[in-house]
Design brief:
The complex is a heterodimer of chains A (292) and B (413). Chain A is an all-alpha fold. Chain A has helices at residues 2-31, 38-56, 60-83, 91-117, 142-164, 166-176, 178-183, 188-213, 221-235, 240-260, 266-280; strands spanning 132-135, 138-141. Chain A has one domain: ABC transporter involved in vitamin B12 uptake, BtuC. Chain A contains eleven helices and two strands, in the order H-H-H-H-E-E-H-H-H-H-H-H-H. A two-stranded antiparallel ribbon of chain A has the order 1-2. The radius of gyration of chain A is 19 Å and the shape is globular. Chain A starts with a helix and ends in a 12-residue tail after the last helix. With 413 residues, chain B is an alpha/beta fold. Helices cover 40% and strands 17% of the residues of chain B. Chain B has a seven-stranded mixed β-sheet, sandwiched between helices. Chain B has a three-stranded parallel β-sheet with strand order 2-1-3, sandwiched between helices. Classes of the chains: A mainly alpha (292), B alpha/beta (413). At the A-B interface, helix 1, helix 9 and helix 10 of A face helix 2, strand 7, helix 8 and helix 9 of B.
Amino acid sequence: MIVGQAVVDGILTGGVYALMAAGLTLTFGVMQVINVAQGALVVLGAYLSYELEQHAQIDPFVGLLVTVPALFLLGVGIEMLFIRRLRTLSIFNFVVMAILATYAVSVITEGVLDMIFGSGLVEVQAPYVDNSFVWFGMHLPEIYVYGFLLAAGLLGALSLLLYRTRFGRSVRATEQNRTSAMLVGVPVHRVSTIVFGIGVAVTAAGGMIFGATNAFNGDSGSDLISRLLTIVVLGGLGSMGGALVGAIVLLVVENLVAVLWSPDWAPLVFSVVLVVVLLVRPNGLLGRAVAT
Amino acid sequence: MKRTPIALVTASVLFSISLAACGSGGTKANTTTTSSAPIVVGADLSLSGDFATEGLPYARGYDMWASYVNSHGGLLGRKVTMKILSDASNQPEVTTNYQALISVDHASLLFGPVSTLFTVPAAREALRFGYALVEGAGGGPVVFNSGLTNVFDTGLTIAGTVVPFAKYLASLPVSDRPKTAAYATENDPFDEPETQGAQQVLQAAGIKTVYSKTFPQEVADYTPIADQIAATHAQVVILGAGDLSVLSPFVHAFIQQGYNPEAFYTANGANPPQFAPAIGGTANANGIVTSGSWYPDYNNPDSQAFVKAYLKAYGGTASSIDPSVAEGYSVGEVMQAAVEATHSLNQQTIMNYLHSGATIQTVLGPVSFDKLGQNKAASAFLFQWQGGQYVAADPPQSGVQGLVFPKPAWGAS
């Protein structure tokens, strides 16, 4: 039973991490931008949900109607101010400079959050955070079930957007060959800006769930980013489904090791799994070779 | 052309050696007592990162002490200047910062960092330059077992934290005494031995261990650990949580699993004002026990004066004062007492005084060090959430009857 509980917990929590990692893999897949500010932006999303819940008594899920557009606009601003200007560089230099630029965004975001909110730990509150569904003798926390459903819904919607819409065709064209896409009239700058905005907007949802299930402060993002990068590498850079699969694999492996062996070994065993997977599939579980 | 690389290498080596000579032992502590220049007091603290929740209140405590001293004639008639450098919760930065405080800022006195993890490298660096290091947040056994003769910890040792609670449980009549216990602790040089200390006492009292594991700080999800504890139905839970970010997932998981232990002790994270709001209100906090060395209503004249000064400077209510501020303040009081008693800034003289067994009155109560630098006179309190209030339950503060056992159900008052 405890093993089953560990697996189910891993799947549900994996959905939450997939939400946080989805934006990261999207921006890399389309723009070759490794957004190391992702962790800080998750925390920003958590704080926005927290403030709406504390001061306007808005349910965290309802609050997404405000926080998602807000973070979309922030993402658009970041891309136009920091990323677009680097496009004149060679691809290698662009990737490196984009990492530095997003690192700067991360530091600025953490600093601003620390200044505004201080170092005290807070959590997003909701009545269903401590409730659970009972399923075959296992307790499934409601917040994680809702978070998993939200993750599935959002990732599904993103996939529909990418594969069933005209905009999605433009995105995939830009991803495959930016120059050729430009030549056939795809507005690649606008596409990149919107994609980056979407990547950050999705983070708002991940941040809300993160904030409801963890005590956090402005510095919590620095712990997150290493796990999120691990998830997208395992799942495959640029693969939305890979983000979900990678997150679930990470959490299930860690949970099983913690329960069957020792929590001390969980991070190490996962790292071993990651290395083995990359040796067999260098592009990750569901990734494909990145265009150069 | 062949000589050039050799010349460059030789010059580099000589340059490095000269730099090292400047950095090691080349700077003496400023022990002049006749100068009128301000006395620089140096400290490394975690002002950002994982340990900032303790580092920032400690900084406030150090600053409050400096303000108090300067408004009361200074130290040996000289103003005190606090110089605090941040390590951003990175251990390598600690050594670098103390080197800078000594070599660049020419600090005359040194205060310690937060966390046992940082205290050891800080004390080693201070000892290299012959400095005493007074600190309040590095009480793990490794600090006192490392042969460091210059460290003085005003805080509680392990014997003063969870062990009194374990002894309380062990002292219950056999019919009331819990039968099983679960232990989970972060891989931390203080929390881990603290939990082991409790386990020894409880096992000796016949309370069976049904779960005992450590976990690293990098764990992505605490839920499986908490679920496994819940599955054992242990009547006692001893949790070596580093802070609220570790404690909160355990509380949530226990509530989600419908598991309510009869006794729940946490090393850290349960003090106001953040704990109750994070776990859904004070009703969920009731019954949880932790330990500490100070609380705002502490019946001690120094403490009460400190609380008044804090409220005047920063506002708010007494219950919102983080105990780490008082702990930081006490570090200053101890150093001040040593300097004034010896009328000296000489580090060896200060260390000899502090090792002499002299008792110093501070906001934490009496402080007196043994030969290892541990505070053998520390006032230890067990705190418990009762009726939505965070109270000193052992020894009980006024109006409190003592520890409540068993713990109320989650959500009950």
